[in-house]
Design a protein that fits this description.
Length: 73
Amino acid sequence: MEKIERQIQTAIVTGPTGAVGTALCSRLLQAGCTVVAVCRPGSPRAVALPKDANLYVVACDAANLADLPQCMA
């Protein structure tokens, strides 16, 4: 059986301001991925996210994730 390897190029991370989310964002950025960090609007912890040209912070409430495409526009 042939092994298939996939390279993640872009990841959307919800909960990026928590301990696991912040670590995940950092690891994805180190791997060269573009990361879209979906934060609660007005989140005071969003400023603690890694500073990187490939990190995009998008304000969108988890209760309204269906609105994410419009929030990203």
